[in-house]
């Protein structure tokens, strides 16, 4: 099942629904009165009820809506760093594999939805603006001290993220480099876990202006999904709707020689097997919102 959060053109009120055959079906008013957002549905363990509630209801073409990150009001977006063998994108070098899981977080306002514009940071910060394609787990059942054996049962579904990064600022602190406004993206939707029989078999492919720049299997992670969830749940009480970005493979712009950072007008596509393709264009601030062309789903 594919689930999306969205707004209608000309309306900022967020909605959500089930995607079927290129349309998004919204649940009935009684269901929405109980579950105001997709996060509320996940928290109530009501995904099956949502699917039933969308039978025979109002539907919108995907061309009529603006997709938001699947869980736009996620309490936390937790990211794993250096989770693939790669050239470290801040410096052209190959550091030793991390002995422990490396974590950072992304703040509210850093992620835009599918087909929305990525905001190129102004000034010198924009000179080292980079991309990172990643698989994201959306927590369905919260908990503390989750075992690796039980970890996958705590996942409601999966989506895609572009972990937008400003490398020169990342040298100052990871937090600074990872949290520029509207620098990353997430979507286009959430696919429930039952639709992906073996998540280790899916592949991440990132294309920049049509060039394939990242390509890897989830199986290549240094710390697998189960280990990430177990580790994170030992530090915090995971909540439904929390998002865990699982790391990006080799091939981001800072890892290339010569480096290839994002520039105004670039087209970025991140495709993950069984989920779809997250597409965004880079836009400098002075041009954001002008002559915006919706990218195809």
Structure class? alpha+beta
Tally of contiguous helical segments: 6
Write the CATH architecture name of the largest domain. Alpha-Beta Complex
Q: Gyration radius, to the nearest Å?
A: 18 Å
| Average pLDDT over all residues | 93
Summarize the amount of helix as a percent range. 10-25%
Residue windows where pLDDT falls under 50 for at least 5 positions: none
CATH superfamily of the largest domain: Fumarylacetoacetase-like, C-terminal domain
What is the ordering of alpha helices and beta strands? EEEHHHEEEEEEEEEEHHEEEHEEE
- Strand tally: 19
CATH topology of the largest domain: Fumarylacetoacetate hydrolase, domain 2
Task: Name the beta content range.
Answer: 25-35%
Cα distance spanning the termini: 16 Å
What is the overall silhouette?
globular
Q: How can the largest sheet be summarized?
A: 12 strands, mixed
Domains, number: 2
CATH class of the largest domain, anyone? Alpha Beta
GO molecular function, one term: catalytic activity
Keywords: Metal-binding
Domain Fumarylacetoacetase-like C-terminal: 77-282
Protein name: 2-keto-4-pentenoate hydratase/2-oxohepta-3-ene-1,7-dioic acid hydratase
Structure commentary:
About 15% of the residues lie in helices and about 35% in strands. Strands 1, 2, 3, 4, 5, 6, 7, 8, 11, 12, 14 and 17 form a twelve-stranded mixed beta sheet that branches. It has a five-stranded mixed beta sheet with strand order 9-19-18-15-16, with no helix packed on it. Strands 10-13 form a two-stranded antiparallel ribbon. The longest helix is centred in the C-terminal third of the chain and has 9 residues, at about 225-235. The chain folds into two domains: about 1-65; about 75-285, Fumarylacetoacetate hydrolase, domain 2 (Alpha-Beta Complex), CATH 3.90.850. The two termini are about 15 Å apart. Strand 1 (about 1-10) and strand 2 form a beta hairpin. The chain is globular, with a radius of gyration of 18 Å. It has six helices and 19 strands. The protein is α+β, with helices and mostly antiparallel strands.
């Amino acid at each position: 099942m594919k689930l999306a959060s969205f707004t209608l053109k000309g309306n900022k009120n967020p909605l959500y629904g089930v995607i079927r055959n290129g349309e998004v079906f919204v649940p009935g008013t009684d269901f929405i009165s109980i579950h105001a957002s997709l996060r509320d549905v996940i928290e109530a363990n009501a995904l099956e009820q949502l699917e039933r509630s969308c039978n025979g209801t109002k539907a919108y073409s995907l061309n009529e809506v603006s997709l938001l990150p699947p869980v736009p009001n996620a309490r936390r977006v937790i990211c794993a760093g250096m989770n693939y063998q790669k050239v470290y994108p801040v410096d052209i070098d190959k550091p030793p594999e991390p002995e422990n899981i490396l974590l950072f977080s992304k703040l509210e306002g850093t992620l835009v939805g599918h087909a929305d514009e990525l905001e190129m940071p102004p000034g010198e910060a924009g000179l080292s603006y980079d991309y990172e394609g990643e698989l994201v787990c959306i927590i369905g059942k919260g908990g503390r001290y989750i075992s690796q054996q039980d970890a996958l049962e705590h996942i409601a579904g999966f989506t895609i993220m572009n972990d937008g990064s400003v490398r020169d600022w990342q040298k100052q602190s990871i937090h600074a480099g990872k949290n520029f406004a509207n620098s990353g993206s997430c979507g286009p939707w959430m696919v429930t876990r039952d639709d992906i029989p073996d998540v280790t078999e899916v592949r991440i492919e990132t294309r920049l202006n049509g060039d394939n720049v990242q390509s890897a299997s989830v199986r290549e992670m240094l710390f697998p999904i189960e280990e990430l969830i177990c580790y994170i749940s030992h530090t915090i009480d995971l909540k439904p709707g929390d998002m865990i970005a699982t790391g990006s493979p080799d091939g981001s712009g800072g890892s290339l020689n010569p480096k290839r950072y994002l520039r105004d007008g670039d087209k970025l596509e991140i495709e993950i097997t069984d989920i779809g393709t997250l597409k965004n264009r880079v836009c400098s601030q002075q041009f954001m919102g002008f002559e915006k062309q919706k990218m195809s789903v």
